[in-house]
Amino acid sequence: MSKKPLAVTGATGFVGGRLLELAHELGRPLTCLTRRPQPEKAGVKWVQGDLHDKAALAQLCEGADAVIHIAGVINAPDREGFEKGNVEGTKNLLDAAKAQDVSRFVHVSSLAAREPSLSLYGASKARSETAVKTAGIDHVIVRPPAVYGPGDRETLELFKMAQRGLVMLPPKGRMSVVHADDLVRLLLTLADGHGRSGLLIEVDDNHAGAWTHEGFAKALGRAVGCKTMTLSMPKPVVRFGATLDRMFRGDKAKLTPDRAAYFCHPDWSVDPDKRPDPDLFTPAIATPDGLRDTARWYREKGWL
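Request: output the structure for the sequence above.
Response:
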């Protein structure tokens, strides 16, 4: 394992935060981009700036062994917002990585990129993948499904619903999930040069046949120790809820019309043929165990 630092974006987010912890345990130095000043952390050099600050990106990539690009825009008011955050930002980072002769670019995309016509978010992630593929740099693209684990605020709402005994779900369908620590282990493995250049990986918990929405809701109920009922919401109801959320919470809305279209798609399971080869990576955390540990963490922190 190289002792040159890894350049990381999105280090102040949920997945990035887990990467900082696991890299520290492995003794892997990091150089991380941040928009705001951060407290000192052992093994981490902070570079203040963003994906449109070319001087900061040059400093981020200087001397780096590889780039792990986690940062991205999940919610935006329009196409331009997604384009700026997910496409232009990725292109800027690719330019900096090439200029600094970084050996590998690990790009964290999304399963949403598989269905670009469904949402502005998915379309922007698909375009970011194209930018990586055509940049002329050694690269691997990882498409995570829903990511959960201690510290995640996105799936927290599902745990709260399960604790109340009723989980409201999109229309019936299938989904894949992965624990953040498993995703991070894969990213670090790829950043160390394992896996051939040009790989497109869809990673999950290797649950056979993926999870049905109802099956996942029941697993949440077991994790919080409650008997849980499920309610599948028709598409028009989900879309109407998104309209109301945007109306009342504006840019802070969780369920935007764009996300509603994404949620209502019936199949967000990974393609088994795109799972990583077992010799490269195998998930270590079974989802029932991971959900239980996450629920325990939420309770210890007073979130649940």
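Residues 110 and 152 are 17 Å apart (CA to CA).
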